[in-house]
Design goal:
58% helix
């Protein structure tokens, strides 16, 4: 988390707030890594306490941070950004993104769906879960293409 924050602030033209950093890390990692506020904000406080970043105020209660001279020096010695060190297969990222989109749809059903729609969603989820477990029990054929839908 430290390296990600220092790298972002070193590359930024303007001070950034925590949620901007969360979004930027998610974007740069292809959606695979989206830190939580519970991990970003304590790290910001720690970096501030260490004198590597400084709080430059902000509007609407959002604290903006930028690197200090010591922080710039620390950022120069980091090497490759953390999101470039994530070694995942593209299908892992696709699965993560699909699951996130599904969670969004489920929240909409839970929030605005009728009782009948929620009941139907439960049945669909149970069917999908069974199908996924069934798929895991299948024996892979090495001659089959990985591109099957």
């Amino acid at each position: 988390m430290r390296a990600a924050i220092l790298t972002l602030l070193a590359e930024a033209d303007e001070p950034m707030h925590g949620y901007e950093m969360i979004s930027e890390i998610a974007e740069r990692s292809g959606g695979f890594w989206k830190p939580s506020p519970g991990s970003i904000y304590p790290t910001l406080q720690l970096l501030n306490d260490e004198g590597l970043i400084e709080d430059v105020g902000g509007k609407g209660g959002k604290r903006l941070f930028r690197l200090t001279d010591e922080g710039k020096e620390a950022a120069e010695n980091l090497g490759a950004p953390p999101w470039e060190q994530i070694d995942v297969e593209p299908t892992e990222v696709e699965l993560h993104q699909a699951a996130a989109a599904l969670r969004g749809a489920l929240m909409q059903v839970a929030t605005v769906g009728s009782p009948a729609q929620r009941k139907k969603a439960v049945a669909m989820i149970n069917q999908l879960r069974k199908a996924l477990y069934g798929m895991l029990g299948e024996i892979d054929d090495p001659d089959e293409s990985d591109d099957e839908d």
